[in-house]
Design a protein that fits this description.
The protein is α/β, with parallel strands linked by helices. It contains 11 helices and 7 strands. Bound molecules: S-adenosyl-L-homocysteine. S-adenosyl-L-homocysteine binds next to helix 8.
């Protein structure tokens, strides 16, 4: 997909079911920076759980143009309140904990979040305090933890920077979901992916055509066919694309036959 079409594509409606939850934030500036990080990635739902201080002037200064996200932020007393309606809750941690939780990479966490949200579920990504992160009790409320695989000797990102990384991964997953829905890079509707049988039909015709145009010139055809199979399978063709390619092959076969009968 081209970068141009990525930027013009509207993000998936699932974005509205994704919330970023900041627990016990200590520096008001971080709430503003987090709001800005979210808005650049098309996310708008911020929840603040018992912040040490309410968003203030410094928060709004750092939110820059994202004061709407910050102004609309919900404030809750506890993490349990903030995620009560969520089917998936992921806790972001700067270090491994004793709590027995599956640990996800940001990319996998984002993919799972968008899949759930696209299926209609509410999803929360939870971030901890600057000094101490999330408590073990708070992590117990999460279905899995997410760790940004940072420098192991210095793995704790600034809170808003961690929100930025996860928001970016969510955006990529949302863009993937909206393009995967039915659009190709030019914004045209895509057919469903070609079936196994359609691909095999195409490969059989490709092999016949290569014979007919004497592509192999006495070499064994297997090696070229293996490489071509790999190439076309990697392309993830849809059914219509396979039909176009088979149309080209049919024309080539017809021309080869005409050339043969002239000889
Ligand atoms: N000193 C704290 C770090 C807090 S940083 C601790 O050791 O837990 C504030 C928050 O940013 C963390 O609670 C976490 O939600 C997020 N964060 C920072 N670095 C992260 C990383 N490498 N992976 C995932 N989340 C991270």
């Amino acid at each position: 997909m081209s970068s141009e079409s990525r930027s013009v594509n509207p993000s998936h409606p699932a974005a509205q079911r994704l919330r970023i939850v900041l627990v016990g934030t200590q520096h008001p500036g971080n709430m503003g920076s987090a709001a800005r990080a979210m808005k650049t990635m098309g996310l708008a739902r911020l929840v603040l759980v018992a912040p040490e201080r309410r968003p203030n002037e410094e928060s709004y200064a750092l939110a820059a143009g994202a004061d709407d996200v910050l102004g609309d932020a919900l404030i809750c007393e506890t993490l349990a309140d903030a995620v009560a309606d969520c089917r998936l809750v992921l806790g972001c941690t700067a270090r491994s904990r004793r709590v027995q939780l599956e640990e996800l990479l940001p990319r996998d966490a984002a993919a799972r979040s968008v899949t759930e949200a696209a299926a209609g579920a509410e999803v929360a990504l939870v971030f901890g305090r600057e000094r101490t992160g999330l408590t073990n009790d708070e992590l117990q409320l999460c279905h899995a933890s997410v760790h940004i695989p940072a420098n192991p000797d210095y793995s704790s990102l600034n809170l808003a920077a961690a929100v930025q990384v996860l928001s970016y991964e969510l955006r990529l997953a949302l863009l993937d979901a909206s393009s995967g829905d039915a659009m190709d890079a030019a914004g045209e509707r895509r057919d469903p992916p070609a079936s196994h049988a359609e691909m095999e039909g195409f490969f059989a015709q490709l092999a016949q055509t290569l014979d007919a145009i004497d592509f192999h010139k006495g070499r064994a055809p297997e090696s070229a066919m293996r490489k071509l199979r790999r190439l076309y399978l990697r392309a993830g063709l849809d059914a219509r694309e396979v039909r176009i390619l088979r149309g080209i092959l049919a024309d080539a076969q017809r021309m080869a036959m005409l050339a043969g009968s002239k000889r």
